[in-house]
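Re: [ENG-882] Designed sequences occasionally contain unexpected residues at chain ends

Forwarding the minimal case from QA. Structure tokens:
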């Protein structure tokens, strides 16, 4: 078996035998539309979407054509280029908080710079982050990402080796979806808080009515920049992202995944006033936030992003993807109910998950109460049935056909019946 040999070779040259992303027990050979194939030729319906970027599906003909044309003209210049400028224009037109855009290559970098930008803007040090919230891999972001041992709020728990202890001191951890806690934490520490970073929908947990609004109000009251991490939600929940979908506009947002159309590109976006810290002349010596990146704003990623956004602007695109997602969420819920499994299907039609619990899930600690062993067994059954997804999240693409949806629901139904 070709795949087994590759997995064995990977064990020698890649730590933990893989890329550090997904389980290394599958080696993907190619993708087309809503499907991917592994190295043994097994076919899967793809609900991973490369961890989100491939919202249009794999190998979208118009994106491929635009990218191929660009590749013939050069792949990266480190210099300003028309495609990067056009993409920044498209982003600022779409995203309410964005007057200017600074490109980076990954969501990790975008979030790291967004927090630094808030610190530069306010001259304060502390960042409020929510337990279980994912903002990439920087030292700040690794605080209380997925803590196994729970601390008393707002104490931060590092989730990675190699992080100097003082980093903890500048992170304040709060429970997601708890407006009262957020309000009192902000009131107590306002003079030291540089920014509040939040996934508008944390992992798969939707914001409860009033939660994001409270953060917005409190941030405005105390002059604290509110940062929405829209690496996942940007151009996915709506063309204008979660800030459009939920009607709450942050001061700073980060974008990634969809804006690069499957190539490395991410961004920090905010008002011209805040973004002035990236401009040495405007910010002055001490206020200047230095930011450089070899591949940031490369024209291949920019054209892929531009073409992706063009497709998404077409009438009916978001209605279609949401309708597919709603059908899947409902069908999966029905399959699990029928088979007698206590569960919740939570998230957003473009990105959701079925979790095994008989309680509502509103924060990270509720997620810990879910039956993770059952979820893992369900995930294995789905994989065997030809569903490719990450444990914990199901990404929906525009490439899914009626046949894909029907097949998917059949697999979920069977898996639900087989699940102990
Ligand atoms: C909400 C969120 N922020 C940041 C990131 C980090 O992005 P990247 O993997 O491009 O560094 C991710 C990645 O999945 C994410 O989901």
């Amino acid at each position: 078996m070709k795949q087994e040999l590759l997995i064995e070779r990977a064990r020698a040259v890649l730590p933990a035998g893989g890329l550090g992303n997904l389980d290394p027990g599958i080696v993907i050979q190619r993708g087309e539309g809503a499907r991917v194939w592994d190295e043994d030729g097994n076919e899967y319906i793809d609900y991973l979407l490369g961890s989100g970027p491939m919202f249009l599906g794999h190998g979208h003909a118009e994106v491929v054509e635009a990218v191929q044309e660009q590749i013939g003209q050069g792949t990266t210049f480190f210099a300003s280029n028309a495609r990067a400028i056009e993409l920044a224009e498209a982003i600022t037109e779409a995203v309410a908080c964005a007057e200017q855009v600074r490109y980076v290559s990954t969501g990790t970098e975008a979030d790291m710079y967004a927090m630094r930008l808030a610190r530069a803007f306010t001259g304060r040090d502390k960042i409020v982050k929510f337990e279980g919230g994912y903002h990439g891999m920087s030292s700040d972001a690794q605080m209380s990402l997925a803590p196994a041992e729970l601390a008393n709020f707002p104490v931060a728990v590092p989730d990675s080796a190699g992080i100097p202890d003082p980093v903890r001191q500048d992170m304040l951890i709060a429970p997601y979806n708890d407006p009262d806690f957020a309000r009192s934490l902000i009131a107590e520490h306002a003079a030291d808080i540089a920014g509040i970073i939040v996934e508008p929908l944390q992992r798969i947990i939707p914001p409860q009515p009033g939660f994001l609004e409270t953060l917005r109000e409190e941030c405005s009251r105390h002059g604290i920049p509110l940062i929405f991490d829209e690496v996942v939600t940007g151009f996915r929940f709506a063309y204008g992202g979660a800030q459009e979908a939920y009607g709450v506009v942050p001061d700073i947002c980060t974008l990634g995944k969809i804006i690069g159309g499957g190539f490395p590109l991410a961004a920090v976006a905010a008002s011209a006033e805040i973004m002035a810290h990236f401009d040495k002349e405007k910010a002055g010596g001490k206020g200047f936030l230095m930011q450089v990146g070899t591949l940031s704003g490369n024209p291949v990623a920019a054209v892929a992003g531009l073409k992706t956004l063009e497709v998404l602007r077409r009438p009916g695109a978001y209605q279609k993807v949401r309708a597919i997602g709603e059908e899947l969420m409902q069908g999966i819920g029905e399959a699990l109910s029928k088979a007698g499994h206590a569960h919740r299907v939570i998230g957003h039609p473009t990105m959701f998950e079925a979790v095994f619990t008989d309680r509502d899930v509103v924060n990270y600690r509720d997620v810990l109460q879910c039956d993770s062993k059952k979820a893992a067994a369900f995930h294995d059954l789905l994989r065997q049935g030809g569903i490719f997804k990450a444990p914990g999240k199901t990404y929906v693409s525009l490439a899914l056909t009626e046949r894909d949806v029907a097949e998917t629901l059949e697999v979920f139904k069977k898996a639900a019946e087989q699940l102990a």
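QA comment: On inspection the terminal residues look reasonable. The chain is about 40% helix and 15% strand. Proposing we downgrade this to a documentation issue.
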